[in-house]
Amino acid sequence: MQTLVNHQLAKILFMLKLNYISVFFDGQPAFQNINLTLNQGKNLAVIGESGCGKSTLLKSIYGLIDLNEGEITWKNKPIKGPKFNLIPGFKDFKFLEQEFNLMPYTSVSENIAKHLSRQTPTETKEKVRFFLKLLDLEHLENKKVKNLSGGEKQRVALGRALAKKPELIILDEPFSHIDHFKKHKLRHALFSYFKRENISCIIATHDTEDVLGFSDKTLILKDAQQIDFRETETIYNQPKNKYCASLFGEVNTIIPEAFQLKHEFKTDELIIYPNEIIISPKTNFTAEVTDCLFKGNHYKIYIKHKQFNLVMQHHCKVEAKTINFSIDVKAIKKRLN
Ligand SMILES: Nc1ncnc2c1ncn2[C@@H]1O[C@H](COP(=O)(O)OP(=O)(O)OP(=O)(O)O)[C@@H](O)[C@H]1O
């Protein structure tokens, strides 16, 4: 009985399932053997270097591209590509592509209102007002879309995608045209809205800020292959390799033995983040300081120790030509465990 209940629960929770899916263009994989599940209300980030297959994967999930291998299911029903669907795209999903496809000669409000579900004029007005506020577009409500900036258009496109509440929203670099100042506020407002409304989200991005703090799971692609798919925190704390760690920023690879850490870490190579190298005057490790960059709340410091070029961070500027440093073993062990 319990098994039956668990099985049914799993059926409900695993809304989206990608079952070893692949797409090839001219015999070359755009992505290959992607295998994952996404639960209701969860946020998945898809990251990886340019050309690794992120956009093609998103389009395939929405049903715009036919799969060459595997199957995509949503609530246990297959999602078919254009070969099997007269109207491309899946009804429970909304997709915000890199191109926005807005109606240029109508106003911001009209663009959003057109996509709301049918309701009374007062309800429509209230809903439009809600999205204008959420996306910081209130001051532009009557402006024609053709006269908006790229970032403003991108926000209208987000409003349009959300107007009729989707069960899954697919976002391809949704903040790429939006300035940093607005991006932080908007990102927070949007992801909080998705959580509140239990909307699942898949976002392809090059911005670590979209990933850390907001995505529950992360999929890492490289050369069309699935390199990792785990909880975002686990991926960051225990990166499989340097490529995976580098997607979150600059990192170091060291040989533990060269830093007298052979007994602490039983691996040939160890990936360490810049905050895990610390200036400590009492150690035997000296390094030449090759650069020191102001980063706002810290300095990024490039150092050279024997054959190792390392990057570390420090709370204040380093003027000295050489420093003594140590590897923060305690912090690394805490992260790895
Ligand atoms: N319609 C197509 N025909 C042929 N090749 C394609 C097509 N669309 C994409 N590709 C190729 O598939 C690969 C994956 O492209 P995709 O746009 O999915 O990458 P991406 O990870 O989204 O890149 P970026 O981060 O630069 O947006 C690339 O090598 C690309 O050239």
CATH architecture annotation name of the largest domain = 3-Layer(aba) Sandwich
Shape: globular
Question: What is the residue-mean pLDDT, rounded to a whole number?
Answer: 91
CATH class of the largest domain: Alpha Beta
Q: What's the alpha carbon Rg, rounded to whole Å?
A: 24 Å
Helix residue percentage? 25-40%
Q: Supply the CATH superfamily name of the largest domain.
A: P-loop containing nucleotide triphosphate hydrolases
Low-confidence stretches: none
Give the CATH topology of the largest domain: Rossmann fold
Structural class: alpha+beta
Protein name: ABC-type Fe3+/spermidine/putrescine transport systems, ATPase components
GO molecular function: ATP binding; ATP hydrolysis activity
Keywords: ATP-binding, Nucleotide-binding, Transport
InterPro entries: AAA+_ATPase, ABC_SmlMolc_Importer, ABC_transporter-like_ATP-bd, ABC_transporter-like_CS, P-loop_NTPase
Description of the structure:
Residues 16-248 form the ABC transporter domain. With 337 residues, the protein is α+β, with helices and mostly antiparallel strands. It has two domains: 2-242, Rossmann fold, CATH 3.40.50; 252-336, Nucleic acid-binding proteins (OB fold (Dihydrolipoamide Acetyltransferase, E2P), Beta Barrel), CATH 2.40.50. It has helices spanning 2-13, 54-62, 108-113, 121-134, 150-163, 180-196, 208-211, 232-237, 242-246, 329-336; strands at 14-25, 28-39, 43-47, 69-74, 77-78, 93-96, 168-172, 200-204, 217-222, 225-231, 252-254, 270-272, 277-279, 286-294, 299-305, 308-314, 322-327. The strands form four sheets. A six-stranded mixed sheet has the order 6-7-8-3-9-10, with helices on both faces. The chain has a five-stranded antiparallel sheet with strand order 13-17-14-15-16, with no helix packed on it. The radius of gyration is 24 Å and the shape is globular. The mean pLDDT is 91. The site of adenosine-5'-triphosphate has 9 residues, from helix 2.
